[in-house]
Specification:
119 residues, mainly beta, 7-stranded mixed beta sheet, 11 strands
Length: 119
């Protein structure tokens, strides 16, 4: 069982920045892939950025060049630095951890943190 706790959301004006944090209850090096997802009202949850255990990253096209995912292994924490925020970035942001315990894959989610970008 993995617990994830997000923080760092809030209200920001367009063009501003926020950094979200996700603290895991286990060593993040034991997690195959961690990532940030978001869900806006009336829309499906979508991937924002992911990082594998070997440090490889992947970004949604809509955030490339603006968002950066990183981690602090010692703190078991995943971050996403969000710059040049736009109103369309408004959503609840969720942290995800995916673990392979062959033959099963396990997904864990945090409770979410609200990000609101005003125009």
């Amino acid at each position: 069982q993995v617990q994830l706790v997000e923080s760092g959301g809030g209200l920001v004006q367009a063009g501003g920045s926020l950094r979200l944090s996700c603290v895991a209850s286990v060593s993040i090096l034991s997690i195959n892939v961690m990532g940030w997802y978001r869900q806006a009202p009336g829309k499906q949850r979508e991937m924002v950025a992911t990082m594998t255990s070997d440090g490889s990253t992947h970004y949604a096209d809509s955030v490339k060049g603006r968002f950066t995912v990183s981690r602090d292994n010692a703190k078991n924490t995943l971050y996403v630095q969000m710059n040049s925020l736009k109103p369309e970035d408004t959503a609840v942001y969720y942290c995800n951890a995916g673990l392979l315990n062959a033959p099963r894959w396990y997904d864990y989610w945090g409770q979410g943190t609200q990000v609101t970008v005003s125009s």
